[in-house]
């Protein structure tokens, strides 16, 4: 029986998903797990789809998460959650940021941003937590910290808050952003019910 857990992080370029994934991976390594991470960037650095895949356990052979095999998905943007939903296990957990970022095709008028995305997600996923990470980050002083708010929510959902995440943040961000990001990760943990991921 494999004890490997698969975590999918999805969003758009410029949201800080890679940094969040690196902090997550560093914490899991610190806790003694074997960790593999892969990242995929969309066509544009900002506004293109970005996903990272983190798998951890006693022994992980590949970072790749197939369809229907993610234990947990954290979506930094609503539509990206819909786009990647078929990668989540039927009993998997979803933490989603109630934040809309129109894609280039929406901005150009070629597509329309879908309505009722959160409602669709709630209809499709039993274990779902919705966070307004953008609002929380703004209240902390910088919307760019929404990625770390989301990371905090993911950590709580996974039941791995016992790791020294403040230390992981301190080692990963510039000194002037440490306080903001420590506050953000703790805020995210406060916003999610404990251990959604079984």
Automatic annotation (TrEMBL):
<keyword id="KW-0670">Pyruvate</keyword>
<dbReference type="Pfam" id="PF01558">
    <property type="entry name" value="POR"/>
</dbReference>
<feature type="domain" description="Pyruvate/ketoisovalerate oxidoreductase catalytic">
    <location>
        <begin position="13"/>
        <end position="190"/>
    </location>
</feature>
<protein>
    <submittedName>
        <fullName>Indolepyruvate oxidoreductase subunit IorB</fullName>
        <ecNumber>1.2.7.8</ecNumber>
    </submittedName>
</protein>
<dbReference type="GO" id="GO:0043805">
    <property type="term" value="F:indolepyruvate ferredoxin oxidoreductase activity"/>
</dbReference>
<dbReference type="InterPro" id="IPR019752">
    <property type="entry name" value="Pyrv/ketoisovalerate_OxRed_cat"/>
</dbReference>
<keyword id="KW-0560">Oxidoreductase</keyword>
<dbReference type="InterPro" id="IPR052198">
    <property type="entry name" value="IorB_Oxidoreductase"/>
</dbReference>
<dbReference type="InterPro" id="IPR002869">
    <property type="entry name" value="Pyrv_flavodox_OxRed_cen"/>
</dbReference>
């Amino acid at each position: 029986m494999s004890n490997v857990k698969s975590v999918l992080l999805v969003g758009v370029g410029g949201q800080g998903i890679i940094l969040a994934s690196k902090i997550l991976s560093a914490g899991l390594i610190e806790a003694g797990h074997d960790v593999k991470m892969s990242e995929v960037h969309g066509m544009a650095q900002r506004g293109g789809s970005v996903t990272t895949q983190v798998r951890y356990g006693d022994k992980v052979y590949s970072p790749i998460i197939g369809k229907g095999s993610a234990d947990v998905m954290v979506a930094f943007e609503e539509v990206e959650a819909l786009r990647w939903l078929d990668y989540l296990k039927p009993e998997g957990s979803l933490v989603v940021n109630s934040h809309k970022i129109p894609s280039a095709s929406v901005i150009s008028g070629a597509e329309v941003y879908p309505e009722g995305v959160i409602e669709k997600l709630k209809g499709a996923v039993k274990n779902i937590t919705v966070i307004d990470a953008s609002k929380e980050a703004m209240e902390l002083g910088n919307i760019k910290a929404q990625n770390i708010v989301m990371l905090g929510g993911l950590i709580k959902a996974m039941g791995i808050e016992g790791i020294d995440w403040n230390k992981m943040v301190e080692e990963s961000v510039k000194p002037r952003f440490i306080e903001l990001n420590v506050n953000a990760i703790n805020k995210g943990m406060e916003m999610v019910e404990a251990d959604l991921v079984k």
